[in-house]
Amino acid sequence: MNRGFFSIFLGVAALLAMQAGDEAQAQGQPKVALYKLTDPTDSGIALQLREQLQVALVNTKKFSVFSRDFSSAEEEAQLRRAGKTTRNASNSSVQFEAVDYAIEGSITAASRTVEETPGIVLFGYDPGPCRTESVSIIVNITVRDGNGQFLYATPITKSYKKSCKLVDMAVLTSEVSNELVFKFAAEVFPMKVMAVRPDGSIVLNYGSAFLPIGTYVKISSPATAGEFGGFGSELGRARVSEANAEAALARMEGKKPVAVPIGSIARIDENQKRSSR
């Protein structure tokens, strides 16, 4: 991290913390219940993915997170009505405390294939066969409010192919969890411009877990309407050049970048998330 970003981050850290605190307080410190993922495909990744989702939720520092040992809020409710649950059913005394959001999910599709081809023999050395693995998964997440009303659903599809090596499933599921959590968090706490540096670069209120270096974001004028904020006129596109766990620094593109007001809304450019490297 260069000194310029480090110094600006120190100056903005308090602002971010205060903003996060104000947002959380305004929302009543939102409580999120994370239920067990169902896995009808028997992919074997449900537990790992759920743990990574929990870590990603905690890392946003915007929610209180509670694990539920059920596959859905309805299953929990049915058992509670039948008197088959207790308040201390898990290691958390607030296991069945009312929550603001309930996150349920399912691994709706998963496939894994391995192709084996003969290795190339050079100078009498036989490296053995080349095993190329291809993995594809689809994870669907649904979110309900504290009253059980359906809010939205978001699917994530990931496909990887590794030539002559195996796919690192931990990396794959980590990317899925970060993307899912970011979509949820940004619905409640939109990504915003929290500060503007003298050189015109902007500081965003999400960090490296969600905005890695090279990510492109579209910037719009501050929200004017809507519960979660609307979008004003589009001001341009910025590229993330520095990031840490708390915030990201981005630079506006173009020969004459427009001035960006604090409070402007940022959205990840889905057409080109990363720069070529």
Description of the structure:
With about 280 residues, the chain is of the alpha+beta class. The chain contains 4 helices and 11 strands, in the order αβαβαβββαββββββ. Strands 6-7-10-9-8-11 form a 6-stranded antiparallel sheet, covered by helices on one side. Helix 2 (about 45-60) crosses helix 4 (about 170-190). It is flat. The two termini are about 20 Å apart.
List the keywords.
277 residues, alpha+beta, Thrombin, subunit H, six-stranded antiparallel β-sheet, 4 helices, flat
Mean pLDDT: 77
Report the end-to-end length measured between terminal Cα atoms. 18 Å
Q: Count every helix, treating DSSP H or I runs of 4 or more residues as helices.
A: 4
Low-pLDDT segments: 1-27, 86-96
List the domain count as a whole number.
2
User: What's the architecture of the largest domain, going by CATH?
Assistant: 2-Layer Sandwich
Helix vs. strand class: alpha+beta
CATH class of the largest domain: Alpha Beta
Q: What is the CATH fold-level name of the largest domain?
A: Double Stranded RNA Binding Domain
Which geometry do the CA atoms define?
A: flat
User: How large is the share of residues in beta strands?
Assistant: 25-35%
How would you spell out the order of helices and strands?
HEHEHEEEHEEEEEE
Oligomer: single chain
Largest sheet: 6 strands, antiparallel
The spatial strand order of the largest sheet comes to 6-7-10-9-8-11
- Based on CA atoms alone, the radius of gyration comes out at 22 Å
